[in-house]
């Protein structure tokens, strides 16, 4: 990463932290702390375990579009998805770093690079398609519950803008796959020997994946189930916190939060964006700002609980491979 990119990443992180701190200060630190404590140890443990199940669904989606990989290797793709999410959630690399860590995890267990990168591209495509469906649900519900309050009216263009950005990103990703691979191969031919053959192998694997629509559909359904399950996890956390917000309302909130996080992919962990969005959207369905903000912070705590051990184990494995 060059110096301007590092400076930009640092500035985005600092601004996000300021926004998050401002949200906590506005709502009230004591109120937010009390709301977080209300989940209890059993509630937090249930929240973390449920999130582990979501990682299982994401691993199923990835292995579904991995040519030549069988069901007995599911554990490996679940583990790779875990390290990928861990790096994305708590390391200052944004989305790209997580993809690299996930790819290295699979490569360490002998999965061919062409299979890794082709399956990752197909998995990302189906994940974005599933998220788009989930986002459209969230926007539809939002439009049904909005009143004429000025703040709430301001959410309409924000939500529709998020949908537009999601559609644009998805179309760009889908239609630019092969041209970008071709360009990467052409550039690599001038710099690295064998890169053309490597890119050609990825293209061949990607073509093989798309010739099996059942695999692609399975990956889409697993990813859609993962989006729904992840949102349901937030509802479970709120239930342990004593909140009576209905499931459909939490699904709506989470769909919009996920969309905003995706649009703000350049900000590590969408710091500040997530917190501000919860405070803004939560009250629409009767979720107090303190509880909404507490949920956001509990999700970050859950990410740390899962990500830190996962990255430590991954790093130990990387070290052993270097010294062996």
Automatic annotation (TrEMBL):
Q: What is its main location?
A: membrane
| Membrane topology value | Multi-pass membrane protein
The alphabetical list of record keywords is: Cell membrane, Membrane, Transmembrane, Transmembrane helix
Protein name, entry field: Lysylphosphatidylglycerol synthase domain-containing protein
Pfam families reported in the protein's UniProt record: LPG_synthase_TM
Q: What is the lineage of its organism?
A: Bacteria, Pseudomonadati, Pseudomonadota, Alphaproteobacteria, Sphingomonadales
Query: Where found?
Result: Cell membrane
Q: Where are the transmembrane segments?
A: 47-65, 129-149, 155-176, 217-240, 247-271, 277-298
Q: Which InterPro entries match?
A: L-PG_synthase/AglD
């Amino acid at each position: 990463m060059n110096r301007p990119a590092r400076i930009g990443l640092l500035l985005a992180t600092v601004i996000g932290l300021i926004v998050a701190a401002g949200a906590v200060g506005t709502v009230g630190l004591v109120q937010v702390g009390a709301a977080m404590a209300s989940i209890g140890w059993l509630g937090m443990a249930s929240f973390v375990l449920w999130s582990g199940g979501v990682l299982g669904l994401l691993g199923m989606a990835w292995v579904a579009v991995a040519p030549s990989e069988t069901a007995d290797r599911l554990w490996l793709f679940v583990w790779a998805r875990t390290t990928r999410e861990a790096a994305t959630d708590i390391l200052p690399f944004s989305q790209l770093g997580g993809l690299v860590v996930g790819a290295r995890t699979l490569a360490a267990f002998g999965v061919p690079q062409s299979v890794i990168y082709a399956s990752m591209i197909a998995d990302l495509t189906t994940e974005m398609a599933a998220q788009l469906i989930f986002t459209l649900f969230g926007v539809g519900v939002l439009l049904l519950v909005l009143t004429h309050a000025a703040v709430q009216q301001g959410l309409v263009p924000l939500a529709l803008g998020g949908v537009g950005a999601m559609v644009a990103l998805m179309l760009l990703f889908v239609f630019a796959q092969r041209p970008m691979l071709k360009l990467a191969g052409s550039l690599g031919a001038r710099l690295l020997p064998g890169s053309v053959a490597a890119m050609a192998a990825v293209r061949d694997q990607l073509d093989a994946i798309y010739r099996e629509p059942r695999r692609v559909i399975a990956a889409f359904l697993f990813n859609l189930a993962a989006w729904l399950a992840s949102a349901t996890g937030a509802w479970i956390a709120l239930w342990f916190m004593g909140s009576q917000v209905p499931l459909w309302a939490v699904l709506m909130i989470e769909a919009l939060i996920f969309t905003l996080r995706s649009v703000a992919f350049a900000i590590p962990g969408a710091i500040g964006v997530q917190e501000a969005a919860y405070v803004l959207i939560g009250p629409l369905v009767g979720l107090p700002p303190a509880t909404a903000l507490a949920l956001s912070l509990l999700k970050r705590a859950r990410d740390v609980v899962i990500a830190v051990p996962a990255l430590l184990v991954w790093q130990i494995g990387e070290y052993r491979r270097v010294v062996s």
